[in-house]
Amino acid sequence: MSPLVRVRDLVVAFGGRPAVRGVSFDVERGQVVALVGESGSGKSVTARSLLGLCGRGAVVEADELAFDGLDLRSLGERQWRGLRGRRVGLVAQDALGSLDPLRRVGAEVAEPLREHRIVDRVRPEVLRLLADAGVPEPEVRERQWSHQLSGGLRQRALIATALAARPELLIADEPTTALDATVQKQVLGLLRAKAAAGTALLLISHDLAVVADLADYVHVMKDGAVVEHGVPADVLTNPRHPYTRALLNAVPTAERRGRGLSGTIPALDQPDRRVPGRELITVTDVVKRYRVRGRPPITAAAGVSFTVRAGETLGIVGESGSGKSTVGRMLLGLVAPDSGAVEFDGVPWSARAGAERRAARRRIQMIYQDPLASFDPRYTGRQIVTEANPDPERVAELLRLVGLAESQVDRPARELSGGQRQRLAIARALAADPAVIVCDEPVSALDVSIQAQVLDVLVDAQRRLGVAYVFISHDLGVVHHIADRVLVMRDGAVVESGSATAVLAEPRHQYTKDLVAAVPGTVLRQAQSVLKPG
Amino acid sequence: MVTALDTPTPVRRVRIPRAGIAAALVVLAVVAIAALAPGLLTGVDPNHADLGATLRPPDWDHWFGTDQNGRDLFARVAHGAGASVLIGLGATGLALLGGIVIGTLAAQTGRWGDEIISRLLDVVLAVPGLLLVFLVAAVMGASGFTATIGLAVGTVPGFARVVRAEVLRVRASTYVEAAHGLGHPGPRVVLVHVVPNAVGPVFALATVSLGAMIVASSSLSFVGLGPKPPTAEWGAMLAAGRDLASVAWWPTVFPGVAITLTVLAVTVLGQHLQARFERRTV
């Protein structure tokens, strides 16, 4: 039997510049095929060529581009519409952006049913699809708007929409990138079950660890071409292409603790000589509640206590809504606790005012998940760092330290890539000569390979300058890699704390155990224990 | 085999064609020369009355004809640009300055300050714009200066509201928090980061309202609240030509066309700048 999807020598060009150069792959019914690579590798464009949605100005050429024996190269717009949603479904990464804010969730799921006249009675089918996609209380959710759903529920609603017309092929483009580990695990399980039931699944991801757990076959893409392909166990244990090897090394895990991830900073392979210093921050029993009218108050911090020492990294892990970001903002004195105290350098924020408060502010800096939003849009990279430190030599030195070239910093920051923006944010934070930097999900929006470079820059800067980090993240792999000590937060409370190795390798609290179990990369870790590093 | 696939094209925003922008620039250049150095366009004195040549239709000696006093209409239209455009520009500039200062103060002075300033702006907004000018003219006497002040006062509340909303938006942004985090004093952060990032929309609004201001300044002259005669001014010329419209078309048509073209050019350019500004911030 011929495969459901057959692609041979696919080339997609935009304005004469090829984004995909000669990609070939098959997808069988019931099979999970993954395209893995970083942003710009051409993986999304490749998948969208199966929907005729490569974008404006795209020129698509192929020796073969077939879906169930149908030659996609000769389809007109009307025929494409018969295919999209009906026979090929798409789950996009941005679940909020993919759902119409002015329609209820039920109407969203019902649309393909009505459009393609799948069933006579739509509503029972909508409820069935929502329940099937793992949405609890479908009768309630169906009546809600997309902004009322959590990220995980939105993604599930989107999957329900994509599956509504019972497509033979489902394309999932980074379906779990923005989700917490436990939710990610559920969504991946849902996709896996769909594949087992006979739907072909084309999975697109930058994360080799996620892909390896789910896929039957993997294509690693770089610069528009497939550099390596095979079954995951083979690709992971025996990577032949240097790029695949680099991708594997870039995954932060316990095994790679204390070593460089990106291979770009040789100094990281020297032994770690940091010695934690005196206590810089003392948090004592802080409580913070937010009251929203008509709803029970949200407890962001319920009696949290901890300390941060000079030169160490404290990881704070927890899922969305656990209160970890609120705690981070209290450390900076941006949010005042309802009770309890946050002392920085022995003085509580509440006792500092005016010039003294401003001087203290400089000593504790922040790095955000979205660095671009933290830059004045009118400023160039150099101006942004200069604002933190007027000494041009120091600015140049820090830009070198974070690996930004002279040619990159005299342009507006929005022209930089995601990884470069975060390097710039690190340079600015360091320019204020801080004792502590609070990093709130600093690498969550980045591809694994870029994440590896940013994490390496952070570790390198800490070893050179002795700055302490409070590293807030939902990603246990990242925290396990970078943190010396860890707090695990849930619903505003610390459920477990201790050294990173102890807490994450041998969790005692049930919640921590669940979190650790949800971390993707089972196949990858098995491979890494076989594979010798280096 | 090689084929190209059709991909759907999203609907594009209507853009002003390049030729339109070029034409607008040419018109504005001519108006600017007329406003700053009308002598470059005509050597004729706009106030020289040749009683032997009253109400002549356009010919080679008088391109736009002459009025009932025998004054050359081309010279009067050229010299009239100064008054209309200066009043429009001056009123817009003053309204911008006032709007930015008052809007920023409203956003920055806390709940009570905001409440007091915003209600005062509401009071001004409740008075019709022309009535405001009458008021200023009644107190200070009718002149180009009072027309400018009156128009500016009527426009400030709208500008101030836009600035206030933008300041509140920018103030909540992460980069302002980051600037505070660097230990800079509050007023510095407001002046260096908040205000410059908040004024973009009001400048775009001003380029569009400049056209309306020029029309308004002509209207004021038309009803006699602008510059005093015999100063050449487009609105005043319209008013003077009105009674002759049945016997001579040229005393009203040429100043009217001048107003229309100027406003059109300013508006086209304003919208173009606004579109560019929006693209830059996205």
Structure, explained:
Chain A: One of its GO terms (molecular function) is ATP hydrolysis activity. Chain A: Belongs to the ABC transporter superfamily. The complex is a heterodimer of chains A (534) and B (282). Chain A has two domains: 5-247, Rossmann fold; 311-321 and 330-335 and 351-531, Rossmann fold (3-Layer(aba) Sandwich). In chain A, 36% of the residues lie in helices and 24% in strands. Chain B has a single domain (65-281), classed as MetI-like fold (Orthogonal Bundle), CATH 1.10.3720.10. In chain B, 70% of the residues lie in helices and 0% in strands. Chain B is elongated and about 75 Å long.
List keywords for this structure.
heterodimer; A: 534 residues; alpha/beta; Rossmann fold; 2 domains; six-stranded mixed sheet; 21 helices; B: 282 residues; mainly alpha; MetI-like fold; 10 helices; disordered N terminus
List the helices and strands and how they pair.
The complex is a heterodimer of chains A (534) and B (282).
Chain A (H helix, E strand, L loop, with lengths): L4 E10 L2 E11 L4 E5 L6 H6 L9 E4 L2 E4 L2 E2 L5 H7 L4 E4 L3 H4 L6 H11 L6 H11 L5 H4 L9 H13 L5 E5 L7 H16 L3 E6 L2 H7 L2 E6 L2 E6 L1 H6 L4 H9 L28 E12 L7 E12 L3 E5 L6 H8 L7 E6 L2 E2 L5 H9 L1 E4 L13 H8 L3 H10 L16 H14 L4 E5 L7 H18 L2 E6 L2 H7 L2 E6 L2 E7 H6 L4 H9 L3 H9 L4
Helix pairs in contact in A: 4-5, 4-7, 5-7, 8-20, 9-21, 14-16, 15-16, 16-17
Chain B lengths: L17 H19 L36 H36 L1 H17 L2 H12 L3 H28 L2 H8 L4 H13 L1 H23 L11 H9 L7 H32 L1
Helix pairs in contact in B: 1-2, 1-10, 2-3, 2-5, 2-8, 2-10, 3-5, 4-5, 5-7, 5-8, 6-7, 8-9, 8-10, 9-10
